[in-house]
Prior knowledge:
- The protein is mainly beta.
- It is built from 2 helices and 15 strands.
- It is elongated, with a radius of gyration of 19 Å.
- The protein starts with a strand and ends with a strand.
Amino acid sequence: MHRISIALTFLLLAPTAALAQSSADQPAIDACIDALMASGRASAPGGTVLNSSFSEAGTEVILQDGGGTVWRCIAYRDGSVGLLEEATPEQAAAAASAPSPADYQEQVRFETGASSATLTRTMEAGGAFQFVLGATEGQFLTVSLTPQSGEMYYIIRNPDGSILLDGTDSATPYEGQLWQSGDHIVEVVSQSSAPLTYDIFFGIN
């Protein structure tokens, strides 16, 4: 995700340590970049989006400009910005230490000609992980989660961050028609006190 301007170029480096919904975050990220560019307060051209944390009440975005100054911004889905201020040292440090998306998120890819895939993965006790599936409005999504031991549940989110399927026990598979196009998030959560291995099936037709 980039946003390019004559004044500044920002790159999305890493989302928040919480499981971020990048599609839902993007309008707020764009609004914060625009606000910083328009403010004239950046210490140098260029910059990076260090972190974003989506909330219906307002998304927090942490930006670092080309001169190394870190900014904290609160923005909303409609593109408005409620706050733009220089981040505290603590906020800057927390944003800089955010994990790589690969630590908690995987893009699901099917083999050529296939419309489904079964993945086997492991998870730490009480952990959570996201699978990202690109799909189109009107297609049907099937998800089946099978832990080899222990208990798990899963959540499915639409590309805009809204809930398609609320927390559902792994014993209950999902099949339904999609009503948005874009990246859908299947988040799996362990309820086990020990590491576990699980199989997860995805189908899109």
